[in-house]
Write a structure and sequence with these properties.
Two copies of one chain form a homodimer. Chain A has about 120 residues and is α+β, with helices and mostly antiparallel strands. Helices cover about 55% and strands about 10% of the residues of chain A. Chain A has a three-stranded antiparallel beta sheet with strand order 1-3-2. Chains A and B meet through α1, α2, α3, β1 and α4 of A and α1, α2, α3, β1 and α4 of B.
Chain lengths: ~120, ~120
DNA sequence: TCAATATATGAATAACTGTTCATATAGTAA
DNA sequence: TTACTATATGAACAGTTATTCATATATTGA
């Protein structure tokens, strides 16, 4: 049985269906946001805003166990949020690109808080 | 015992600690990202890009049970991602502000995919 | 080679979260 | 009021995930 809604918004509904990204793309975007949606990982990103850092200093900056930070860094890297390079005994991490900072800043603007 | 890292990056580490947002602010930002990090909720946002829609049409656009969509809408609204107004028997939802679209577009750019 | 530092990883547990089912609330028309 | 449509909500279960602990790998210096 048909619904009794006003026809006004059916155009929007139709366009929404036609332009819905394929399932895989939605899940890729979702994975990005999920990766940066945990306070512990978000702190790492806030820390890396100020320049590249090795794991030891990241642990200092965000607190928590070295093992936990390492697990989180692996997730961030696997999802393309951060990148890393070896420098002697250290692994130096940095934000993958400028989009990351831009997204963080937009979210803060949305919340009316200063980064 | 002191670590043996190069001093190069200690400036970044110090700045990171000094500029780390307070715990509450980190968690508010994290909550925003967590809210938009589920494929089902993300689909709702992709759908609402094309204009406001009532729940019935959102269900049509994203699939799934009405109850599930309603739960998701509640979360989205509680976190300030969408807003709603009543229109007769219908509740019409729309994106809360332009930041939401901007964040989605940035994430897609990051993934090199067209929105 | 050995010892020390730096980082990563596997497994296990505890906490969290999305969905479903059943039901409740609210508006509309008769 | 009653019947119907539209939306919301509470509880419970299943699946996911972050952390901890113990251990492994890799680099450096002696």
């Amino acid at each position: 049985m048909e619904c009794q809604h006003k026809a006004e918004h059916e155009g929007a509904a139709r366009r929404a269906i036609e332009n819905m990204p394929p399932e895989g793309e939605v899940e890729r975007v979702a994975a990005i946001f999920k990766t940066i949606s945990e306070p512990s990982r978000l702190k790492i990103l806030f820390a890396l805003r100020h320049g590249e850092m090795c794991v030891f200093h990241i642990v200092e900056a965000v607190g928590g166990a070295q093992s936990a930070v390492s697990h989180q860094l692996r997730l961030l890297k696997a999802n393309g949020i951060v990148k890393s390079r070896r420098d002697g005994q250290n692994i130096v991490y940095s934000l993958a690109d400028e989009h990351v900072v831009a997204v963080l800043e937009l979210a803060c603007t949305h919340l009316h808080c200063k980064l």
